Amino acid sequence: MTTEPTPAQIARLIDHTLLKPEATAADVEALVREAVDLGTYSVCVSPSMLPLTIPEGADVKVAVVCGFPSGKHTSAVKAGEARESVSLGADEIDMVIDIGAAKAGSFDAVEADIRAVREAVPAPTVLKVIIESAVLDDDEIVAVTKAAVAAGADFVKTSTGFHPAGGATEHAVRLMSETVAGRLGVKASGGVRTLDDARRMIAAGATRLGVSGSRALLGADASAASAPVGY
Q1: Catalytic residue (choose from 78, 128, 154, 187)
Q2: Is 108 designated active site?
Q3: Distance set, CA 2 to CA 15, 66, 205 (Å)
Q4: Which residues form the domain of 199?
Q5: In a domain, 104, yes or no
Q6: What is the pLDDT of residues 72-82, one digit of tens each?
Q7: For FRET with 10, which of 141, 185, 197, 213 sits at 20 to 30 Å CA-CA?
Q8: What is the tens place of the pLDDT at every residue in 30-78?
Q9: What family name appears in the similarity comment (predicted)?
C-alpha cells in the first residue's frame, strides 16, 4: 500500500484471533460473528474448536494453529494435526517451529519440520510458519526465514503471542520481509493492538496481522463484541 491504510483495508489483513486455553465454543461462535461484522480476513483458532460454522456468503477464512504454542511437538504430530485441521475445514495452518532447534543452529532440522507439515497440507492450504522472533537474534531470524522459504511455506509469522520474550517488532518484521523478498507473506502477531501499531507493521513489510482485539484496534463500537477475545 502506497498510502496510509484505512481501517477497512487493515481489517482485510487481520486474522481475528482467539487462542486462550479457556475459550469455549460460544466464545468462538462470537468471534466468527465479530469477524464477519468487522470484515476481517479470517478467524484464527485452536484445532479443538473445529469445525466452525461460517455464515453463508461471508468472506471469512479459517486459520488454525499447529504445534502451538511451544513448537516442541514431533514433525509427525504437527503434520497429523495440520492434516486433521484441514479435513475439518481449515483454510490456513499457522505452525510453530522447534525454536530450540533454531537456537542450536540446526536449521536443516527446522526446514525438515516445516516441510513435513507442508507435505501434509499442500496448496491451496496456506501455511504460515511461526518463528518466535523475539527469542531469536538477527542471524537466526534470517536463517529460519530462509528455511521457511526453502520448505515451501506461504508466510513467515513473528510470534505465538504467548512467549514471555514478547511479540512482533518492526525490526523483526522488516528483517523477515527483506529476507523473503516478496516470495512469502509476512505476518506480524503478538502485541498489535492499535491502528498505529498495525500501520507501523504494514510499513515494515507485514502483509497479514494477527490481532485478538480487532474491534478496539479498528475503532469500531466495542459494545457489539459479545465474547472475550485474546491470545
Answers
A1: 187
A2: no
A3: 22, 34, 12
A4: 7-224
A5: yes
A6: 999 999 999 99
A7: 141
A8: 999 999 999 999 999 999 999 999 999 999 999 999 999 999 999 999 9
A9: Belongs to the DeoC/FbaB aldolase family. DeoC type 1 subfamily.
